[in-house]
Amino acid sequence: MSHVFQQFEAVVRDVVEGLAGEGALPAGIETRRVAVEPPRDPRHGDLATNAALALAKEAGRKPRELAEMIAGRLAKHADVAVAEIAGPGFINLRLGDDYWRRQLAAMLVAGETFGVSTRGAGRRVNVEYVSANPTGPLHVGHARGAVFGDALAALLEAAGNEVTREYYVNDAGTQIEMLARSVHLRYREALGETVTPEDFADLYPGDYLKDVARALVARDGRRWLDADEGDWLPALRDFAAEAMMALIRDDLAKLGITQEVFTSERALVEAGRVEATLDRLAEKGLIYEGVLDPPKGRKPEDWEPRPQTLFRSTDFGDDVDRPLRKSDGSWTYFASDIANHFDKIERGFESLIDVWGADHGGYVKRMKAAVRALSDGAVELDVKLCQMVKLMRQGEPVKMSKRAGSFVTLRDVVDEVGRDVVRFIMLTRKNDAPLDFDLARVTEQSKDNPVFYVQYAHARVHSVLRNALAEIGGLDVSTEALATAPLDRLTDAGELALIKLLAAWPRQVETAAEAHEPHRIAFYMHDVAAAFHGLWNKGKEDPALRFIVAEDRALTEARLALLRAVALVIAAGLRIFGVEPVEEMR
User: Fold this and answer.
1) What is the CA radius of gyration of the chain?
2) How far apart are CA 206 and CA 407, in angstroms?
């Protein structure tokens, strides 16, 4: 179903085209820039349109003069109660109560499909998230990017896009060799040798590698104990990386995340994909041998100018051109990352989204430059940076995990507070804003806890439905039955305001998806919950406003229909977040 704003964009365009047909406006006047949106101040009405401002120049009229013409026609529309002109030429509309009641009925007929959009038109989008180095378990900071990326992928799907969820495995380079050496130490320890904390200087000392070492002993026995490093390093590198990725997949599964594609950096390098990608850039004249200027500020003592293979990233908005080879002849991380993104472009994705930690902010311009260069500007890359999570308990910082050795693991947090709480709380702030995660407060049953507040609204609705069945014999509270309830009985201002809020759900999905901002859904769900709880409280104060009025079956059915729509919308939002809607609070 088209939503309210789409319906009235069509109405406004019909009015403009009607005026053009009568000769009051130029024939064929272009109406694509006409928009209908919520007014900035809800007191100004239900909808606002920019039609007069958008069309004034082409129409050859002053905006307010054109607004008077359009508003005069809109005021005659059967569903428009008031059409008013505001400011330089905006038109504010108030719609009749019957229109909103019909919207409520349409929501119930649509059921779980209400809010599902075709706006994305099947656009192929790749969302790459987590992509942590496979050197240990995920920590609580990774959880934020993981949840954000997963919810964004679900939001984009709800808006009609075809989405692939991807993990880029950084399994090449020095960090994997460090992992292999760390495992070798734990392997020696598992075979009875003594290792000390000093042995792990610049390595990974976490106890989680003891399990990996024991698995290696079970597979290979003492084979690598006295072997040369040149023999054991490649074998342990592969074994350890696979073990860590298995651990990471398990961590993500605990959070309810499954990704379809895992792309290996080492596989790209070994398959010659880096060379092929840079050959493509060379064909475009975007690679050259040159000498970079010294870093700004005080020059490091060991810095010396030397010729390097450089990418002309400044041609695409970057601050400086970027090196593609290290002094030892190996590729830079940037070269491998370019190959990774070129691989996505060749797989036919029209839009790329990368979810990174905030410490990668300096990397954004060069990566966007590379994507623009390789796609000739046809593919968009949006990089979403997630700020750190401050983990606390009753306002005090949480100590490090004993098992991980240097951080609190994602698994520890999920085990303590539950998957749904972690997922919801991670989405209650914009991704680039700091987030405080208090293990005690996120499980409190209070209105100050956003996940409880929203879940409680959903559970309360189902409690009312159960009570209605118990109190009124023969009542059918299914969504299908309530779609035909006598909705004209809904006359309270709070009831109508809630209908209007629920009717905005499809637009919320579309705008949040277009902005790549799933936190908007959290804010919206909180507003819906607040409006519902407000009606509940009014019913406690005034028996005439209770949801169940035993002596008035028709009124009860109408109010239960409204509650069904509340539950539908909250459940839809929670599903985008990967959170299970509950029907009873524990």
Assistant:
1) 29
2) 10
End-to-end CA distance of the chain: 36
Find out whether 320 and 369 touch, Cβ atoms under 8 Å.
no
pTM of the full structure: 0.94
Amino acid of residue 286? L
pLDDT in tens, 168-192: 999 998 899 999 999 999 999 999 9
| Overall residue count recorded for the chain in this entry | 586
pLDDT in tens, 244-285: 999 999 999 999 999 999 999 999 999 999 999 999 999 999
Tokens 């042995």, residue located? 199
Q: Are 88 and 63 in contact (CB under 8 A)?
A: yes
Give the contacts of 429 (CB within 8 A, at least 6 positions apart). 435, 519
Q: What is the DSSP string of 189-207?
A: HHTT----GGGGTTS---T
CA neighbor of 146 nearest in space, from 253, 266, 261 = 253
**Strand ranges inside 321-422, DSSP E:** 322-323, 351-357, 380-386, 389-393, 396-397
φ and ψ at residue 392, rounded to 5 degrees: -135, 165
Residue 558 CB partners (closer than 8 Å, separation 6+)? 485, 486, 487, 488, 489, 490
All structural domains of the chain, each given as residue ranges with its CATH number in brackets, are 4-95 (3.30.1360.70), 174-254 (no CATH), 450-577 (1.10.730.10)
- At 578, list the tokens: 């990967």
Residue 198 tokens, joined: 């000093």
Q: Are strands 90-95 and 322-323 parallel, antiparallel or unpaired?
A: unpaired
Q: What share of the chain is helix, strand, coil (3-state, %, to 5)?
A: 55, 15, 35
Rounded distance between C-alpha atoms, residue 404 and residue 550, angstroms: 58
d(CA 162, CA 236): 38
In degrees rounded to 5, what are phi and psi of residue 323? -70, 145
Which tokens sit at 73? Answer: 């026609």
With vertex at residue 468, the alpha carbon angle to CA 466 and CA 470, rounded to the nearest 5 degrees, is: 75
Q: Is 392 helix (H, G, I), strand (E, B) or coil?
A: strand
Nearest alpha carbon to residue 517 among 418, 410, 433: 433
Q: Residue 479's closest CA among 553, 556, 563, 545?
A: 563
